[in-house]
Specification:
Elements lengths: L1 H15 L8 E2 L12 E11 L23 E12 L3 H16 L3 E2 L14 E5 L7 H8 L6 E10 L6 E3 L5 E3 L2
Parallel strand pairs: 1-2
Antiparallel strand pairs: 2-3, 3-6, 4-5, 5-6, 7-8
Length: 177
Amino acid sequence: MIPAATQTLAEIFASGIPLLSTEQIDFNHPGVGQNINPRLNLYCYNIRENVYIQRSGCRQQAKPGKPPLPPPRWFDVSFLVSAWDFTSLGEQRLLSEALILLLHYHSLREEVLAPALRGHGELSMTVSAVHPIDAAALWSALGVPLRPALYVTLTIPLNLQSHPLITTNEGMLLKTN
């Protein structure tokens, strides 16, 4: 589900920023292989279970003859969105376009979601969250000098029944399908 969240954001950026294509979206650590070609860096830096979300009617449809599936667990997946260009002004322009684009979405409708995220209705997205992170501490932890960035969080479902794992006697996890 995390790659689907990343894919959703990348497709929103690539389709909504005129001078940006998917080849100009980088998913690596923001300090890795920096070059000066114009691009956005979309880095997933935090995954946290959202224990406050209350979703009614989120039960998945049961297959005939089987009990209904339990509701999915919900996770907040946080991304650091930074821009890289030849000049600071070019970086600011890319970040401005990304911010304007994201602010058009109060939530993400199913048609803009990657297929793996569909079937749960609109998903919540926040830009530069209400409880802002300590940006300087984050950049310091990443080992990269502080720079302008957007902080985007998507709340996504994780249905354990669609990703079953079993534990062996040795404690190793194995996928069952």
